[in-house]
User: What shape does this take?
Amino acid sequence: EAGVAQSPRYKIIEKRQSVAFWCNPISGHATLYWYQQILGQGPKLLIQFQNNGVVDDSQLPKDRFSAERLKGVDSTLKIQPAKLEDSAVYLCASSLAGFGESDEQFFGPGTRLTVL
Amino acid sequence: LAKTTQPISMDSYEGQEVNITCSHNNIATNDYITWYQQFPSQGPRFIIQGYKTKVTNEVASLFIPADRKSSTLSLPRVSLSDTAVYYCLLAGYSSASKIIFGSGTRLSIRP
Assistant: This one.
């Protein structure tokens, strides 16, 4: 079974530029998550989708970050414009349902973003 | 708002049993306790999940006391490959629940 796919794996941009990340979850997984992980910290949930609806985006900096999950499958996360403090690994995860006893999250390899 | 508290780091030796405790005093009734493992340059990987008492799978055990205010991840007979960061996560399965990873415990296993 294919895992969660993310691209690109690495991205270097200058501050004030825009960047987009792509995620393809495991087939059949209804829930998709985007996390930001700053070096030395645990992942921070940015947004959670259930199919193509948003469940939680309370920690998404909406003035510069946006995410969409059209058709309830793959998703894109965009940063516009980027700031130095956005340098982090952006992790995408998916789970079967998002609710229920054994809803394990499967993580992708992440995209390492460096903002200069 | 931090929902869980774990030791920042732990050291142990190959072949030993390692127990990592997580405190979650404000656990909600519908929260499950989940542990993830993360190696450098990889995404976290699910280890085990439980609601109460004891859960065991092929890689770990999870002990949860009756008041559910803490939990202990037990790794039997660790090896060098168990060196990683371990996260305790409360995942409440409702739309009102927040998924919050703590800072994790950095476990170092020595020969």
